[in-house]
Amino acid sequence: MAISCTISRTLLALGDLELVGANGYEIMSDGIDPGEVIQRQEWAKSPFVHGGALMSSVDDIATGTLDVEVFGSSRADIQTKVTTLITAFKQLYYVIDFDLDGTSWSWLGYRANRSMDANFPFYLGNLTVCHFHFARQPTPQAGPI
Question: What pTM was estimated for this model as a whole?
Fold first, then answer.
């Protein structure tokens, strides 16, 4: 399965960051989860009547996850690439594009929570894995719903 991802960096006045092997980034094979879209529902309830009446229901913000393996030629190279990746996800908003074997999705995402694997064997091999949990709009800007 071919997986690629691009993150816009418009707010940083930079070109899109392509998360591809040639740039030192690899999306983990099970590292993409666009998240569950849940309904934000408003109910009218009475203390005297069982149940309630649904007043409105809309798709709410979803939380997606992305796990990215970062590899480089040295520790300094890895640190630069990790900083670049984290900076892209720290933007107030960005467009995140995924392509899975020719099917593309595009979402408006927001600042991400993040963690990084920095255990010793990874670091000796000049690689690490960054985990991102990002809020996104429920409806894609492009691609299947």
Answer: 0.85
CA gap 35, 27 in Å, rounded: 16
pLDDT beyond 60 at 121: no
Q: For residue 17, is it within any domain?
A: yes
State the average pLDDT over residues 100-108. Answer: 88
| Residue spans of alpha helices (H) in 32-99 | 75-89
Backbone angles phi, psi at 118, to 5 degrees: -125, 35
144 assigned to some structural domain: no
pLDDT at 2: 75
Structural domain contains residue 142: no
The answer for residues whose C-beta is within 8 angstroms of residue 126's C-beta and 6 or more apart is 71, 72, 73, 74, 75, 77, 78
Token couple for 70: 């970062």
